[in-house]
Amino acid sequence: MKIGKLSGALVAVLAMGLTFAGCAPSGPSASSSPAASVAPGSTASTGGTYTFTDGVGRQVVLPKDIERVAPSGPLAQLVLFALCPDKLVGLASMFDDSQFQYIDPKYKSLPVLGNFYGNTLNLETVMKANPQVIIDIGDVKQTAVSDLDGIQQKTGIPTIFVNMASLDSIASAYQTLGAVTGDTAQADKLAHYATTTLATVRQKVASIPASARPTVYYGQDNGLTAAVAGTTHSAVIDTVGATNVAKISQAAGSGTASVSMEQLLAWQPDVVLFAPGTVYGSVATSATWQGLTAIKTGKYYEIPNGPYNWIDQPPSVNQLLGIVWLANLLYPTVFHDDMVSQTQEFYQLFYHCTVTSAQVQALLAHSTDKK
Question: Are 240 and 201 in contact (CB under 8 A)?
């Protein structure tokens, strides 16, 4: 998640929210933190609290024992749900009915807090939820320090940022989060999965000659919104060594760009991926889409989805399973993973969900080679 500039309206809402201070702990602000000279991520103890240096260098006083956590937005929610779901005092956004196929229904009882960078924060709900810390996770923008300080000073709740700007930062982010929340055993498991998955896939991909690596197009919406090469939305494609044909300028910060069918026909990608719920089901009978050899020869697939898209939306820890899936799809002579067991392992670890073989087959229904 990119950290955005707080809107004037949101600042006003936060200021009004001070009237609800009796519903929440009187947490320390950055300006009230005791002076400490600590390296990023290290701590200095003071009684039942300690000074934590977050991912943008802010020193924030945190409780040593944390049992109540609020996510800053949907991406933080996904990351924290894998680590400490029962410590979440609320959700940035409620899971929908399709997601509850994989998420325990007990989480329906959590309040919706909103996204404090999407101008949807319900401050009264946050105060009543009484978190000990608000955690923001993602990549950094220039306004990060002032934005986070503003949230913390207005709410009185310690607010920290943990960097998870790329797939390679997932493991270290979980180690940091585990130290903050006390869930070190689960953090170790999540970090180990991320590190091992990336290393294994990259090692095998390195043995594949460039001539055997396909070109790929990933289309969203009507199929003509392209995930741009080199962005977080293309991270799965890039990691498995394929060439994303959409080497074009992205729409401001979105990681995507609109393309024409003429451009797509000129690219003629070897493989086409479609976002879930878009045009996958109609391209086989479309004269326009049949102009792509990949469509005519059946080399097009719908990305598995549940509870999240395996490639992006959001581009986060869900991408780790997407990497395993896409590597096996593109290089069947090199990768021989059992995707049923791979999916079951991932869902148990990250979503705390036991999925059956039938459920996995349903997830992969449009995501394997056509017979």
Answer: yes
Taking CA atoms, 20 is separated from 23, 30, 122, 336, in Å, by 6, 20, 12, 56
Characterize 143-170 residue by residue with b for buried, 16 or more Cβ atoms within 10 angstroms of its Cβ, and e for exposed.
ebbebbbbbbebbbbbbbbbbbbebebb
pLDDT (average), residues 256-274: 97
176-223 pLDDT tens trace: 999 999 999 999 999 999 999 999 999 999 999 999 999 999 999 999
Domain 208-363 has CATH 3.40.50.720: no
Please give the residue that has the higher pLDDT: either 28 or 314: 314
Q: Architecture of 8-193 per CATH? A: 3-Layer(aba) Sandwich (3.40)
d(C-alpha 271, C-alpha 274), whole Å: 10
